[in-house]
Amino acid sequence: MHYEVSKATHLSEEDIHTILSCWNVPGWLQMSVADFRQRFSNSEFHLLKEDDRIVSIARINADFLLQINNTLWRVAEFVGFAAVTQGKGYGSELLRAVIKTMQDTGTVTIGFCKRELRPFYEKHGIPILYDAAKYILEKEDDNWVPSTDDDILILYATDEDMSLLNSLGKDNPGYIAAPVVVA
User: Within 13 Å and on the Cβ side, how many CA atoms surround 59?
Assistant: First the structure.
């Protein structure tokens, strides 16, 4: 097993097809390699490989922006976490490597999960803000709607970041902001 971090442009065509298959997002399964590389150009792919085959994947989204307390906060988002085969410990091993990398680089990183995934993250000692994801609103059409996730996962955060996240609530929601695109 080996762990590697890669940009979309450095992933092989086989890697990209494996990632899309693991994610199993309708509409993305037939995405071309060029479209994948463009769509995820500001992401890092954290991979656990065995014999040069991906066994577990996580994406770190560098384009994630949250507005909380009138503060626009750029934070790395842990997303797209999956194992090719469940129950072999690949996800656990990759999660430990990602956390170490985020801590070593000082990259503030959060993720989101549904209630049924809590035990996995609790088992790995990930700090969790229970039911806090419902206080993060996303723009859908012309309406702000609560996240479909339940919890916020803290892979790495400073005390200041934690204070900002802990301020989320019914009367103080956060808003997912669109990334600024510079031409």
Answer: 22
Query: What's the confidence (pLDDT) of residue 112?
Result: 96
Q: How far is CA 156 from CA 19, 28, 39, in A?
A: 24, 29, 25
Domain 2-173 sits in CATH at 3.40.630.30
CA 42 vs. chain centroid, Å, equals 13
Provide the residue ranges of all domains of the chain, joining segments of one domain with +: 2-173
Q: What is the pLDDT of residues 103-158, one digit of tens each?
A: 999 999 999 999 999 999 999 999 999 999 999 999 888 889 999 999 999 999 99
The beta-carbon contacts of 28-33 under 8 Å, at least 24 apart in sequence, are none
Residue 133: half-sphere exposure toward Cβ, Cα within 13 Å: 18
